[in-house]
């Protein structure tokens, strides 16, 4: 594959990125449940393009630690500012919602809480524990902040033994200051490397957004770094600009065939599962991944078939 700087840039949104509007009985049930429990989802806060598909199947990624982030990333539509105090009852409401949905796999992520030394890690741990208590057999995936590279904060989460521990690098090192100025590439790698060292049985996961001005070789370099950290699951998706006034523009739309090529490259590098496509987001097909790969739960050979190029 040639360096993508030599390719013609596409700035008009192509047909393969069209999505349907969320609707239907399951969508309405989940929306009502979340409002009743005073919970947030990253699906709504980040305007995920897969919300219709996932909510229609009664799956959602819970957003904990409130809905106000202490960081101001140039790609993210989550609100930024001074967050409310930690809600210690939130894990109970998350667990009760998991039970109400009768989930087999729950995905939990959060805003950044940099005002706290622990970054909110105890709430992640408590969510895992309460889901296990209230919905036995439900696997848990957490998509965590970098906790500024704090090993102590990460250990709080790892001690609760989620089946999957995820942290997205989001972009290539050269663009970190532009895309997520308060983050550090080294923090991301440290988080993923330490997680695997703390508990090798916990699957680790990371992902990239494409279309922010990265070069093809930079993508491959990040993939190699993630494999060096022992990352098991890798996701690649197209960046979509949430708001023209507040967020970075799309520099390039990658066609499906290039995502397919990167998927195969990922498998050749040794990732155990690669989700790569224009509309792929971190939790896309998460339940299939955990059923196929986690040594902590019985495998499901019928439902869990890794995607191929």
> Which structural class should the secondary elements be placed in?
alpha/beta
What is the overall shape? globular
Oligomer: single chain
What is the name of the CATH class?
Alpha Beta
Which sheet architecture does the biggest sheet show? 8 strands, mixed
Question: Which range does the strand content fall in?
Answer: 5-15%
The strand order across the widest sheet is 1-2-5-6-7-8-9-10
Tell how many strands the DSSP assignment holds. 10
| Head-to-tail CA distance between termini | 15 Å
Rg estimate, integer Å: 18 Å
CATH architecture: Alpha-Beta Barrel
Order of helices and strands: HEHHEEEHEHEHEHHEHEHEH
Q: What's the short version?
A:
Its main location: cytoplasm. This protein is of the alpha/beta class and 309 residues long.
Please give a structural write-up.
Its EC number is 2.8.1.8. It is a single chain. With 309 residues, the protein is α/β, with parallel strands linked by helices. 35% of the residues lie in helices and 14% in strands. It is globular, with a radius of gyration of 18 Å. It starts with 24 loop residues before the first helix and ends in a 16-residue tail after the last helix.
Q: What brief labels describe this structure?
A:
single chain; two-stranded parallel sheet; 309 residues; 11 helices; alpha/beta; TIM Barrel; eight-stranded mixed beta sheet; disordered N terminus; globular
SSE inventory with pairings:
Layout lengths: L24 H12 L3 E2 H4 L5 H6 L4 E4 L3 E2 L9 E2 L9 H12 L3 E6 L10 H14 L4 E5 L7 H8 L5 E3 L9 H4 L5 H14 L4 E8 L5 H13 L4 E6 L17 H14 L3 E4 L9 H8 L16
Parallel strand pairs: 2-5, 3-4, 5-6, 6-7, 7-8, 8-9, 9-10
Antiparallel strand pairs: 1-2
Helix pairs in contact: 4-5, 5-6, 6-8
